[in-house]
Amino acid sequence: MTANTVTEQLTAAGRAIEHDSFSIIDAEVGPHAYSSNQWPVVRRMIHANADFDFNGLTDFHPQATDAALAAILGGASRIVADVEMICVGLSASRLAHFGLATHQFISDDDVIAQARAEDTTRAVQAMRKAHRLGLLDGAIVGIGNAPTALIEVVRLIRDEGARPALVVGMPVGFVSAAESKNLMAELTEVPWIVIRGRKGGSTLVVAAIHALLGLAEARQREAA
């Protein structure tokens, strides 16, 4: 069976360490109810934080992985993030292979000015800017830092007809983090992946997207 090449570590030593880590996780994780497409996402998240709690805390819309693969392989998608850390953390070569660009607006002058004028957060205004620019529709939206960004994405979906291909909603924190993810998981209009509760973070969004890119490369090879 041919292995992935684009979405793997670049050296044999790096690949061996990563594969050994995955084998340890598989051996120690215990039972889980994730599908064959969902488990690689959860496993990579566990790998990113050495935290087995993500077995159980991670929740998937039924169409989440299929929607992600369609978006990645369709050639017309993009990644919109709440913070720069996600964009920096994603592998440039893996994104380039699929023609994916990243976008984030958290530090734009107009976003900061509008947040001050409306007494909202920069994260809210950044999501609104992405929507105004037409970037949310068909995008993979990654939220790892700001619960207010995820709450705004939910509002944009419900009230303004935004239609991301997938929302990876994993903001971390103590104020509205769990609640924002519960709101996202109530939606049926758009597929989502969320972490229930307070845990999350940009690292986990990056891990989840990298796992989805790996699944996409495997699907590419099957179709070749």
From TrEMBL:
SUPFAM superfamilies: Precorrin-8X methylmutase CbiC/CobH. GO terms for molecular function: precorrin-8X methylmutase activity. InterPro entries: Cbl_synth_CobH/CbiC (IPR003722), CobH/CbiC_sf (IPR036588). Keywords: Cobalamin biosynthesis, Isomerase. Pfam families: CbiC. Residues 17-213 form the Cobalamin biosynthesis precorrin-8X methylmutase CobH/CbiC domain. The keyword Cell inner membrane does not apply. One of its GO terms (biological process) is cobalamin biosynthetic process. It comes from the Bacteria. Pathway: Cofactor biosynthesis; adenosylcobalamin biosynthesis. The keyword Transferase does not apply. Gene3D superfamilies: Cobalamin biosynthesis CobH/CbiC, precorrin-8X methylmutase. Belongs to the CobH/CbiC family. This is Precorrin-8X methylmutase.
